């Protein structure tokens, strides 16, 4: 074993970074044996230098992250600051000054992954980011390496623990959205400002990363259709139950049936209780992958938290250090397929539509005609009426999102339709 240590610069020492430092210290001997050389924490960049950080030598702490990455003797930079800047500039500088990079930064990778990969390649360095999607769950590496000889057709995932916690609460207790969010906040599962989670921004970043790797195609954050889950109601869960379904916020990356394009989207959807993703409870994450040769695969585990996320970071650190010792680099960006990313209107799926209508003869026929005129075929209809008003629940066969939108617009203009109470896509069948 080499005795000269590999030097690691840790950028950020918060929820994830502090756990990375702890595991590097407590598992130092095992890490050295697995890598073939000891790893040494050479510096820790933070914003607040005065903060007490258990287990961190204060002499290593600096507020000058730029000077740390430019030292010239750093082998690996671990970026766990988060956000776009200064993380982007620091990672680029790290490559230019001879270091490989491990990052957990989904926002940055979804936005600027292509440029960062190019910078890594130009400088002959590694860029690894297993922790950026679904915390501890091995997902990037299985997609990038284990399935490199297969053809992935679909990635369907619960990739945000906060929203899964909220939806699971609504499902199991009958609570409304706000009540479930309040509980998630009180228990520390939701941040004070939950927008990034509940509006689907966090899941959309992960969907962009997953789709890019799965389909060997550049998928930018802007390519991902996004709908949050704040409008999901207890009534939606009641409807889902009647159909033998539950509701999850899903990230869905799909190859079109003809294989010529791909789509990536995030939205709440009904899924059958028999689908493996339906049983993912609490703040857990799970990703279901469908491929030509392997068939169906499911990856499950804790999608966030300091220690689980640090596990993924450390896995990358070991891989990058091994590459470093052997003078090699791991797989870089694979975007050779360059498939076009289709808009949401092209997505084909099933829909559950709940309408408030006048309770009088002929309404059902009128509504059915509108569906038929837009080429959306109806699977089932359920009608409940009282006091001159009625609700009509329509479940469709597979249709494009564009056709469904046209149908809904036309329905809204009918005198007998008082309102469209909810539209929910039905997935996983
Ligand atoms: N938390 C999770 O469960 C989780 C899961 C998966 C991925 N991630 C990703 O991991 C990354 C880190 O998340 P986190 O939860 O650990 O964040 P965090 O707890 O807020 O920690 C951020 C760290 O970065 C430091 N920092 C902020 N601005 C800095 C700057 N300009 N220069 C140097 N240091 C700076 C902070 O310093 P101070 O300590 O002085 O404030 C802090 O130590 C993010 O990209 C996040 O998306 C997190």
Automatic annotation (TrEMBL):
CDD domains: ACT_HSDH-Hom (cd04881). It is an enzyme of class 1 (oxidoreductase). One of its GO terms (molecular function) is homoserine dehydrogenase activity. The keyword Oxidoreductase applies. Its cofactor is a metal cation. It comes from the Bacteria. Its EC number is 1.1.1.3. Residues 352-425 form the ACT domain. Keywords: Amino-acid biosynthesis, Methionine biosynthesis, NADP, Oxidoreductase, Sodium, Threonine biosynthesis. Pathway: Amino-acid biosynthesis; L-methionine biosynthesis via de novo pathway; L-homoserine from L-aspartate: step 3/3; Amino-acid biosynthesis; L-threonine biosynthesis; L-threonine from L-aspartate: step 3/5. It catalyses: L-homoserine + NAD(+) = L-aspartate 4-semialdehyde + NADH + H(+); L-homoserine + NADP(+) = L-aspartate 4-semialdehyde + NADPH + H(+). Catalyzes the conversion of L-aspartate-beta-semialdehyde (L-Asa) to L-homoserine (L-Hse), the third step in the biosynthesis of threonine and methionine from aspartate. NCBIfam families: PRK06349.1 (NF004976). Belongs to the homoserine dehydrogenase family. This is Homoserine dehydrogenase. It comes from Streptomyces anandii. The lineage of its organism: Bacteria, Bacillati, Actinomycetota, Actinomycetes, Kitasatosporales.
